[in-house]
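For the sake of clarity, the format in which proteins appear in this thesis is described at this point. The record quoted next illustrates the convention:

___
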Amino acid sequence: MSYEALVSDGELSVTLYSYGDLHDLTKEELYLCVLVEIICEHFDVVEVAAVFAVVLGAPMLGTRVKPKGTIPGTSLASVIGREFLNVKMKKRLPTLVGYLPLRVRHTSHLGAFVGRWLPFLSVPVVAYDLVAIQIKTTLRYNTLVQPQDRINDTTLGTLG
């Protein structure tokens, strides 16, 4: 990692950085390079599965005509759950449906229950990933740049 300052008319105008094989990067471009590298280092099977689970939980498939006030469509997670867990329960189980506002609906089908809960159980994993990536990126970026280009403690809080 190296950096050089460009001087025009005796005044410091911009500092350019090098990162690996990349040269003449602005501080914003450097931050983006670090972000991409951290994302590639961070994600493994668990994180990818969590992102897919959230996407699969979106009601994007057409379905039968539903009563007024229900959410139109169904999710791929619910369809897959119903297919692989085709079990009728004696008791109706509570599930969450929708995004904002969330609504509680009950189902006696085990597959629908699993399919409806899967995306909501994955949200904390995705939230953790976003926070962890942001913190790691900012900390690494701050070690690479000159003091005036660092993201300061008021932005990062007590983590920097």
The longest strand covers residues 88-97. The two ends are 20 Å apart (CA to CA).
